[in-house]
Amino acid sequence: MAKSKKNRQKDFQKVKFKVGKKLPKGDNVTNLSFKTRQIKLTQRIKEDDGQKPVTKNKLGIQDLLRQCDHHSSSARVNAVCGLKELWLNNTSDLLIPTNVNGYGVILKKLSTLLIDNEAVVRHTVINLFKLILNRLAVKSTEDNMNRLAGNLFTHIHAFLCCAMNHVHEDIKLDALLLFDTLLDTFPLLMVQQTGDLMKNLIGLISTPVYLGTKGNATTQRLSLNPDSKLPAMKFRARVLQRMKKAFMEALNDDTRKRCFITNNLENSQDTWSSFPVSQARHDTCFASQDTGIKFSVLFSGGCHDLDDYITKPSSLESFIKLSVPVLLQCWKEARASVDEHSSSDNLVPADCLEVMSLVMCIIQLMFVLCSTSQRNNSVLQVADVPIVSPELLVKNYLQDFVKLFMNNFPYSVQVLPQTIKKRKKNKDSQSVDSNINQSTLLALNLAVCDVMSSFCSDLTLKPGQTWIKKLQGYVIQFFQRSPSVEQSKTLIRVMKNIFINPHIYADFTKAYKFTLKHYMTCKKMVQKRMFFNLFAFMGQTWDGWERNDHGPQPHYRYECNGEITAILEEFFQSLPGLLLDVKNSGEDKLWLMEILTLMCCGCTQRSSKTFKAALHSKLTEILDSQTGIFCYEDEQIQQRLCFLLSLGAPLSREQLKQLLHLLRHPRDKPVILRRKSWSIVAHLIHGVISNIKEQVPLNNQVIFNKMSQDQHSQLSDYLRFMFSLQIGMIAEEMDGFTPPESDLSETTRWLSFEFSVQGDQWERHVEIANIVAKELANFHIPASLSNGYHQVFTFTSNMEQLWKSTLANRPHIHILSAYSLIKYLYETSFPHITVKPSTEFYQEGSLVIASVLSSLFCRDVAHKMPSEEMVWLIKADIIECLTMNSSLLELVLKLLTARSLGEYKTSEDEKQASKTAIDFLYSNDSIKSKILDMKNMQA
């Protein structure tokens, strides 16, 4: 039965709720909610087996490398920090190239994080990059090249290019930090495997403008980023600084010396001619000697060709075409602010000065690299190797550069007044800012001079006089402020570029005078050498040293200019003093050789008189045996000094004594070298002979008899010098060694000899005696019948008097003197000698020869002989002399026979020695036949 109405209403009674209160859920609804607990493991706990390096959290390299790809930025930072921990604790293990988990794997993984979106990750990565690269760069350069070159550097290069092309500005700025690190640690690698890095630097501040349907980039324009955190000019300055640094490394002297080779090894003998370039050039590169391969790899769908290096001519030329328009736009942008703040065009605001200076310095470095030269072989030849010809630079850029840079040159810095009052700055900071601005301004103006002068290296260019005068005025002004070493390099390059142009060198005469004045007063030897090289180049060029390899004509032709000649004469006069300064300062021998070469060669033709006078004034110091130039035990230096003496600088009596001392003393180790290859002794004697022939007219008897008193004195000193060489000592030494005796009988006089001589001293004297005897015996001035001179003039009578005065009343002489007399008698015995010695001189010579022969066979003297070689040489020369001269042979036999018969007061040993000497002469077939001929003639 149905329920009652009352009960139904009770069951279905409507419950009333307040407004906004949620309805309760039914009793029969299942509750599906549940709660869980989550445990996060960011690190794996791993037991250390003691073999592989792990961090303090027991993580190995592979674990850390996997965490570098973690989605959490903190995990990536921790992973990089763990790699740094491993690197600091296990550097030696990770530096092993064959290590699978070494530095190569770490650097590749770090490269992928260069484009990470989190700044903290990138900064941590860059710091670890710096640490690893600095450790890799500790060893030698070739080791560094092998460690980072190849696929590893290609990988780093690829991601670095991606970072430099990123849309976010922070990533670009961080990429520049890594670029700096690579350039500091591996400059050689960055120079020879530049790849796309330089183009990407340009891309940071510019964007290509595409024209036409093909979409080829025809030009570049400056890019603007309205969301940039840095002002546009400040950002561009940071990029330009990197470009400047890269080109400075490319021009680094050490890098160039280590790395320059020709890319085409098969045509390595072909070099680029200097100016003008008439033949097709080959690309040159900076590369190690054993690696010349190209590093290229297909990465992420793109080819990164690392063979596109800075110093490759085609690459440099294309980069100049790409970068110069952008740099000029940067210049124009900076100059645009000048019109707003300055009433003068040459006043540059301080905030624009940095960009303008960087623009000019980059163009300067590129142009210097275009005309750089390398010494392929320092011994054989010097080859100028212009990377890009100056004609091409003049054709493309001269007109624009003159219009942009020279109209308002030189520039000066302008300090803008502050509109809002601020707290007064510290005076020290203000002075630092002003110094920075001044140094930047100097770099700007010097770079303008360097760039504009590089156009003048095109010999066909005839530039306008206006900007040439501006350059000269600024150079003169700069020399008044004592330039630094780097500034001097630039100034020298400017002066050289101007000088090689035959159309404008005369317009720079005043600047050359100031340069010479600075050179004369320069105290720093480094700078003095640089300016020496400049004037040496000018002197060689002026006298026509620089000649074309294909013909006898010089490269540079100049009109006669008295002012330039006077400048170079003053420079050459300073060379003897500079020679002594370089020697006393302890500089390297290479500079000493350069000075001597310059003094010895033909560049002194225009200033020969003044140069000889300057050389004579310093010659006493140069010839000093203790502090002079001969003290260098170097054959080339001593040989050039000997040639220097032959130029004709007058030699005083004291200077000739110095030369004698150099040749003779000290006896155990003489200063003048003597080698089997060549003998400096011979060079020195022939130098003195050539010198006297320059001073005294010895070719014609008419002029000879009109000599001045000074020339007579020089000739007399020369003969005494040659005679002192013959007797082996100077007159004072000989008087102390064997004083003459007044009561000595001339009829019964017999000589004794001193045989104490060292081996090297004897060999040296044999060489000297041969040279001097040959020179004195063969000298003659022909007769001149038309002028009344019927006899030939020789030195025979002079030498007779010197020998007689030396040997007179001396019972004891040195074997060196006796040997020289034997050689002189031999040289005068030749048939072509028209003026023979007198009979009286033959008698004196025969006494010496007979006494020497008797002494050689005497038992009392035999033990004093230093060596058998010396004895045999004396015997051979005596036989040779007596064979040539029959009169002398007859006198010697007569003396030996008389002594052997007891006509002299001699002992039995001495008589026997004379008999042995006669037997020795008869044992020679030539002497024996001569004696038979003489007997037949007497019969």
Question: In words, what does this structure look like?
Answer:
It comes from Lymnaea stagnalis (Great pond snail). Keywords: Nucleus. This is Pre-rRNA-processing protein Ipi1 N-terminal domain-containing protein. It is found in: Nucleus, Nucleolus; Nucleus, Nucleoplasm. This protein has 939 residues and is mainly alpha-helical. The strands form 6 sheets. Strands 1-2 form a two-stranded antiparallel ribbon. Strand 5 and strand 6 form a beta hairpin. Helix 20 runs parallel beside helix 22 and helix 26 runs parallel beside helix 28. The longest helix has 29 residues. The radius of gyration is 45 Å and the shape is elongated.
Sheet with the most strands: spatial strand order? 1-2
Give the biggest beta sheet. Answer: 2 strands, antiparallel
Uncertain regions spanning at least 5 consecutive residues:
257-282, 284-304, 374-384
Tally of separate helices: 40
Beta-strand level of the residues, as a percent range?
Answer: under 5%
Question: How far apart, in Å, are the first and last alpha carbons?
Answer: 199 Å
Work out the helicity level: 55-70%
Q: Give the helix/strand class.
A: mainly alpha
Averaged pLDDT, please? 80
GO cellular component, one term: MLL1 complex
Keywords: Nucleus
Family: Belongs to the IPI1/TEX10 family.
Main location: nucleus
Kindly summarize this structure in a few lines.
The protein is mostly helical and 939 residues long. Residues 568-901 form the TEX10-like TPR repeats domain.
